Amino acid sequence: MMPKTPGPTQVTNQQTSSRSSAKAVPPLEHLLAWAAWLQSEPPAKPNELLWAIHHLPDSQASPWLKSALQLKNICGVLVAQLFYRNQHLGYLTIFRQPIEIETIWAGRLDSTDPRQDRPRQSFETWRELKQNQTQPWTSHDIDLAHDLAHHFAQVIYQTRLYIQIQALNADLEARVLQRTKELQQANTDLKREITERENTLKQLHLAQDSLNRLSHQNKLILESAGEGICGLNPQGQIIFVNPAAAKILGYPRETMLEQFIPDLVNPVKADGTPYEWEQSPIFKTLYEGTHHHISGDLFRNQQCEYFPIEYTSTPIQAQGNILGAVVVFKDITERQVVERLKDEFISVVSHELRTPLTSIRTALGLLANDDLDVAENKRRRMMEIAFSNTNRLVRLVNDILDIERIKLGKVTLKKQKCDLKN
What we know:
This protein is of the alpha+beta class.
């Protein structure tokens, strides 16, 4: 017979959650007294964790445990420990209530036949014998409980494993979702950084192109300049030279580089006095940062010949530091020749102008003097001299103007043969 309360079969495990009420009583199988009781009972089968209690009052259970079970009208218990893969999962407990002895006997209660009383007397004797007794657990019941315990243990283990897998899967999904968000954010940041770097690189290329164009233009300007240009480092060594400077000095450009400029050109003053390096204008530019404009000093070329030059030395400065100097120079040999010819020309022209002017002044002075008695023929002769010298002055002025026009390129000279006799 099976009890109505609790159910016929009760399965408990170590992970059974307690009720929400603070006064909820845990299942009996969770109590230490339960395990201690089972350890004191002999197993129903050798080497098996299965116990068959046929009559609870005769068992080794503690009094209060017996009382708790008897309150539920339980007299027989079949317990199998749920054990799977070396893990204790709980207990499978099957309860039995006492044999039902309250049976209504069918018959006529008012019958006078004595035979009607004999079955009743026999039943009363049976009921007294079966009072608080249960049906014994058969080997079939024990084997069935053993098989059920094995299946329940397997199901509980798999359920736990499934719950763990579900929890791991949920945790994994949460991690994947979080990692996906992080990767998406990282991807967004990476795209923004790539865009910023592309824009920066584009601007850098534009700046580099502009710098290259500017550098090329500056190079063309320096190489196209008619004056010689040399760039010096703070020690006075040549680090840049343009074609005009190489042509003026007569050196190849590669030969001039890294040369110490005083050793290369050996500058001297106009009177031939050599410069001490510490007293030279270029040295003062490099070490004092001063500007110098010199005209008439001499430089030495590759043929060891000295020639007059005009040069300017300018410091290269950045944030108050002198990084070097730029020397711009040109050969003024032809200019000095022209200036000398001009001086000679002015001297000659001055003499040529003074002579006719003296004659004209003298003649006009005599004619203007009323106190002198000058014959008519002499007076006429003085006028001819004054007129002739005036024409001479006009020719001299015209020659000067023609020379100036030739200098300005307004008159083109044509070469032709001339007869010296005429």
